[in-house]
Amino acid sequence: MRTKTKLNVVLILISALLLAVYVWPQGINKGLSMVQSWFGVETPYQLTEKPFSLGLDLQGGSHLVYEADVSNIASGEVESSMEGVRDVIEKRVNALGVSEPQVQTNKTGDSWRIIVELAGIKDIKDAIKMIGETPLLEFKELNDESLRALTTEEKAQMDQYNKDAQAKANNFLVEAKANPDNFEVLAKANSELVPNINLGVDADVKIEANVDLGYVDRSNATYEALYKAAELAGPNKIVDGLIEWNGGWNVLRVLDQKNEKLEYHAAHILVCYKGASSCTQERSKEEALALITELKGQAVTGDAFYTLAKEKSDESIAKDTGGELGWFAAGVMVKPFEDAVKTMTVNTISEVVETDFGYHIIWKIEERTIPEYHLQHLWIAKQTEADIVPPPARWKNTELSGKDLKRADIVTDQYIGTPEISLEFTDTGKDLFAAVTGRNVGKPLAIFLDGMAIVDANGDGVISEGEEYAPTVNQAITDGKAVIQGQYTMDEAKILKQRLNAGALPVPITMVSQETVGATLGQESLTQSLKAGMWGFLILALFMIAYYRLPGLLAVIALAFYTLLVLTIFRFIPVTLTLSGIAGFILSIGMAVDANVLIFERLREEMKSGKPLSLALNDAFKRAWSAIFDGNMSTLITCVILMWFGSSMIKGFAITLTIGILMSMFTAMVITKILLAFASGKSEKVNKWLYRV
Known about the structure:
By secondary structure, the protein is of the alpha+beta class.
């Protein structure tokens, strides 16, 4: 038991250290910087510093109150429409980069209000403008505008730019040939931003030039132009002349050549069986093995092999190729096939090889080395027509918009029972929708909400989520109705319905109150709260040590662990801290002390009765638990009621107090008990003064 107690104490110390690192990385970083500076570390390691989530009253920001005009909305639709408006506003303030925005709807009598709290917002005017706009629902069709041709002046400018770019690249080539060993430094200093070739031709993402391309072989088509130049130049050379590659001029350096990769030239005969991959034959596996074994005995020469492959192989194109596979490198063929080819001697025929496709016999015709070249390059961009005249946007607006949508409802698919969204247009919208779908037969149609694509439409009145191949309109939809289909849960369908109805049924909102909290005022409140908490903790610690002596000291240590644990939870969830939330946390420290007081008073009584310390400890915790549980449970019930019915400020207080109470029960009954057991030692002889007995 003593060993177990020691291990538990070690675990507590390690946990406390990890919690401190997570809660206070700034302090750890200061210590690391000092230590690393002593040892002359040039690139010191630093922990990521993630700040606590602070509420409006601590971080500063704006508190906005809007009143909604629901007079023109049916009573059964009001609540749903208000949820849709709340969702739209929340999406918009998130787009502003606001930290932890709070958007709530509140009903008082027949009046509906929307409360928006924007912590840390810098430009409140833009936020007010964006929040007040009616949600924008748009139907868009493919943009068929062609790319306009360059003007004579633009063409001349592009040609001059490219001449200058080529001249600049030639200057770097001369400099590189004069000092090859300095090539990498030259390239890093002067290579321009390169389009990321791994993202495809249409990618507009830019990355910093990767000067070192590593080893390249001819199997990689991306680097074909560079590889051919490297073959002609050979290793340890600056390639003569510039190379046009990847949309620019390249100065190329060949660092090294290695000849480790191999390519194989082979042909094969395949006999498959029922159940093998891609096989259409009905023969059994045993029949296939017998047939391939028979063919193996007949394929004694190359000519015989080609003839048998054309006549007997189950490969679909063998009649034309004679089983010829051409040249291939490692990793192209399935593993059993590749392993067999690697071990074969050139111009021999293998034993029977089994793969997922069936049985094979393989003729290894040739084998050769693939030279690989280690390449570095300096890249100077060329200008293209697309740089001067960007391609038109993929989608363009139609005359159909959210104002033409009468309503959106949730329906159920009659065959598989999944939720869908039905759309019904107004009389004007019905005619517009018919015209839009009529001129887009064979083309996709998309729905956008607040500038973001929600779904694409397909023909027979069905609208589906956009995928790699977008659904298309098959015929004009003339009845003014459509259905949004997709892999939606019921909750997702409700959200989509709310968003569509928020755009289709505008709920006018008017700002009735605006309150701004300055960042300076919020910081002052935070500083004062922290001071109050620290002074309260210090006074509490002195009282506990003075009154309860050794148990009091151990309680202070447990309280310190409790503080780290609760702050870790606040940061991890994260909990948005407000002044009321900090008050709840500080109050929970008092609750934690209360549990310790009950335990220590019970411990004194047990020791006064003459019980040995170990037994007194167990009885004290056991008998104090019921009082601790009852007291904390009543407070927790109150917190639940506050969270359920209270305002945002009251909820913040209740949440932090709840977390604090739960963690205080844990530290009092577990951490304090372990520390007391550790401090009691092996001997039952006790210095009663230390326990105030």
